[in-house]
Amino acid sequence: MNIPTLHTQKITLRYGEHTIIRDLTLDISRPEIVTIIGPNGSGKSTLLKALCRLLEPASGAVYLDSKDINKMSTEEVARTLAVMAQSANAPGGTTVEELVCYGRLPYRKFFDGLNQEDRLAIEEALEFTELGPLRTRLVHTLSGGERQRAWLAMALAQKPKILLLDEPTTYLDVHHQLELMELVVRLHNEMGLTVIMVLHDLNHAARYSERLIALKKGTIMADGPTDEVFTQSVIEELYDVKAVIMRVEANGTQYPVCFPYSVEEHD
Amino acid sequence: MKKYILLVFVVIIALAGYFLLARGQHKLAANAAVTVTDSTGAKVHIPAEPKRIVFLNASNLEIFTSIGGKAVGRPTSTSYPDDIKESIKDIPEVGMIHAPNLEKIMSLKPDLVVGTNVPFHVMLRKPLEMAGVPLYLNMINSYEDVLKSIDDFGRFAGKEKEAAAKRAQIEKEYAALTGDVQKGRGPKVLIIFGSPDSFNMSTKKSFGGDLAERLGAVNIADKAENVKDSSYIPLSMEFVAKENPDVVMLITMGGSKEILEKLRANMRDNAIWHDVNAVKNNRVYQLPPSLFTVNPGTHTIDAMKIMKEYIYGEAE
Amino acid sequence: MSNDAKTKEKMRIAVFCGLCILLVAGIFVSIGSGTVSLSVGETWAALTGEADADTDRIVNLIRLPRTIVTVLVGANLALAGCNLQGVLHNPLADPGIIGVSAGAGLFAMVIMLLFPEQSAMVPLAAFVGAVLSTGIVFFLAWEKGINPLRMILAGVAVATFFGGGMAALNVFYSDRIQGTVMWMAGGFQGRSWGHVEMLLPYSAIGIIGTILCARSLNALQLGDELAKSLGVRVMRMRTILIFLSALLAAVSVSVAGMLGFVGLIVPHIMRLLIGSDHEYLLPCAAIAGGAVVTLADTAARTLFSPLEIPVGIFMSFIGGPFFLYLLKRRMR
Questions:
Q1: Domains and CATH numbers, chain B
Q2: Which chain C residues are Cβ-neighbours of A141 within 8 angstroms?
Q3: What residues contact A226, with CB distance under 8 A and at least 6 apart?
Q4: Which of A163, B284, C224, C323 is most buried, taking the most CB atoms under 10 A from its CB?
Q5: What are residue A21's phi and psi, to 5 degrees?
Q6: What is the per-residue pLDDT across B60-90, written as a single tens digit (0 to 9) for each?
Q7: Does residue A72 sit at the C interface (CB-CB below 8 Å)?
Q8: Does A109 touch chain B (CB under 8 A)?
């Protein structure tokens, strides 16, 4: 299986007159779990949108496997990239299985029914997210955590090589947050997916990512393995706070943890 | 399942296509002997002596019946003059003027259908043609049109003699009525036509305006600029105040009493009216709906008599 | 509504079959009703060319084309409404919202009032008008693709503008306005083979095209971003779907006048019965639309024979309360 590469070349991203990101170059060329962190307004979501073709750069280009992503067909892109919805609405009356079925859209021609490959992909997606027993339930009758897994299953049915998640844990409680994150790590470990996330929670970001990209005011402040980025000086400057970085031991493993304790401006 | 759905649709559309192509056009009536030109300029092929004529509007039927014609189908209407009501009572109805029922018409097996220049009659031409039935559209917009219609219908009914007699009678009475007036030397008149949405002034292109002109009245509406070929132009109080008519006559759509009330109320309340001669001298008259809302046909003389009375203020 | 998917599937099939039966029944009733009532056998005989000359004339010249027109117009308007509600994410969308009725109405009125002797051209003029007004709405709504909100606003603006034109005509030609009322209200009197000819090609394109896009329409319901990430070309699909809706609506309004209710409410009723999966919803809405309009037209012309009530009025009175009833049931 060839490794997908995502490369942005000096991209500038704007909404109307407002420039969010200027001349940003980024390379994601190994299957890894990457998380983009940064304060509000730094451009995290904007960058993620550009990476999954939801926002076209005003200048520069995004390359997926060395091809300009905005020049590729949407179906082609959808077979390699999948985005997990943050809080989408399924039309009332959609079952879990039907929702996951949508994930096969990039592969189905006009009036095809589901073929063998489609069914297999759907089964695998349902199995991985442990939604098998819930497959005939209507999506809006599920709990928050179950629903999030359903949207994840839909993304998985696309059989992507790269999965993007925009603040997937925002509306979940602690239990379901951990559950989802564990699922994501399993995805990476078992299926070799590249995972690119935007996370609000710093500790989740540190714990579950191999690489961190710190974005401040539209530029990359730091980019590298978690240990190198998740440091006091970086965090303090990134968020304009004073913080301590500690290591917490639980269950025989050491987890990096950040504790911001007061605000302070940095230039 | 989905494939079946698509199949259903293809079948439906194919069926429709089949019926369309397989059914050819029907031929024209076998006994089309004469070609006449109707009021819209269309050339119509009609039988030399139509035996079964269906009428779509009241005024055409009125003329036809009063010269002795016997129609086999008539429109539903409340505007028939008393003298023909009895004789047409038993003729089957085919619908109101703007809603003729094609099936009903066809069930009467007509060899000629007569209507007037309104959209729903014009739209019947093609379907009737496909059934081999000619459609003759006759408009009556003026006194001359009444006379012409009498002639034409006389031929249709095979009652040329009666038609000629009727025409002669009307012309005689017309001469008597108009003998003592001079065109354009009479009083200034304004004819207001009231509809639910607006008040309008009738010009000489309308039937009422045509009669007024023949009676020698000076219709202030005819002096308006930008009139072109309109039969009615919107009522402008400024214009009325400037022209200051001596007589005002009112017609309302459908003979509606509500609209009449609205008009009268307007004249009471709107101060501009109070300076108009007609209002000052109390010479505002309502024209009887039965003669002026629908075309009076052979009763045109009666209509003219009443109008002359109002214009010149004479009794009889 | 049960959580069980199998029940849902059964329900869908049941509804679809029920609608097909209703449509076929409606067609036979329509062809069999009128000044002369025909039994099913007589109707069939007439359709296959085995009846006497009079019945043959009535069926093949009057009732058959009229019925085909009602079926197609009903299907077209229901599909157009369904499409637009899905694409514009607006449950109140109906074909009028994109300006079709405004243009058709104005141009038809111009012919009927100023050139009544050309009234045979009304469908064509109405179609031109519909295309023109829809084109203006498209143009105003374009922003690198159709912007749904702008489209709705543009539709309102265009409808108001053209409506003003119609009101003006009303004032200047108030003596002739009566002749146009029946057309404006929507109806099928005197509709014949000429109208079928006009309807067929556009209806075929519109119906088949729309059904093929059902899956994309489903994806669009998830929101633009998700749809895009699923590989749907959002802008292109939206434009195509609205264009198809415009086509279906334009040709239908040109032939039948401004028939309301069908495009707005039939899709909703169908959604209450079989859900929002457009792969089922679209075909069912089309068939239901055809059946509803055909039955309504049959009732409208037989209940007070020989007077024909305009179908649009008839359907509004029956349909509105029926929809409220369905809604109430769903709310429980």
A1: 34-174 (3.40.50.1980), 180-312 (3.40.50.1980)
A2: 3
A3: A206, A209, A210, A211, A212, A256
A4: A163
A5: -130, 140
A6: 999 999 998 999 999 998 888 888 888 888 9
A7: no
A8: no
CB contact under 8 A, B106 and C62: yes
Q: Residue C203 — very low, low, confident or very high, per pLDDT cuts 50/70/90? A: very high
**CA–CA min distance B176, chain C (Å):** 31
Quote the tokens at residue C80.
């157009």
Q: Mean pLDDT over residues C118-126, rounded?
A: 91
Strands (E), chain B: 34-37, 43-46, 53-55, 112-115, 135-137, 188-194, 199-202, 218-219, 232-234, 247-252, 284-286
Q: Is the reported ipTM for this assembly greater than 0.85?
A: no
What pLDDT does residue C331 have?
66
Region(s) of chain A under CATH 3.40.50.300: 6-230
Task: Tell me whether residues A83 and C229 touch, CB distance under 8 A.
Answer: yes
Chain B adjacent subunits, 3+ CB pairs under 8 A: A, C
The answer on pLDDT for B135 being more than 90 is: yes
Nearest CA in chain B to A113: B2
Please give the CATH superfamily to which domain A6-230 belongs: P-loop containing nucleotide triphosphate hydrolases (3.40.50.300)
Yes or no, beta carbons of B99 and C68 under 8 Å apart? no
CATH superfamily of C5-331: ABC transporter involved in vitamin B12 uptake, BtuC (1.10.3470.10)
CA distance B16 to chain C (A): 7
The dihedral built from the CA positions of residue A132, A133, A134 and A135, taken in this order, carries a sign that is positive
CA proximity to B50, closest of B182, B185, B158, B197: B158
User: What is the percentage of chain A residues whose pLDDT exceeds 90?
Assistant: 35
**Best residue in B2, B4, B7, B9 to probe C by mutation, most C CBs within 10 Å?**
B9
Nearest residue of B to residue C109 by CA position?
B119
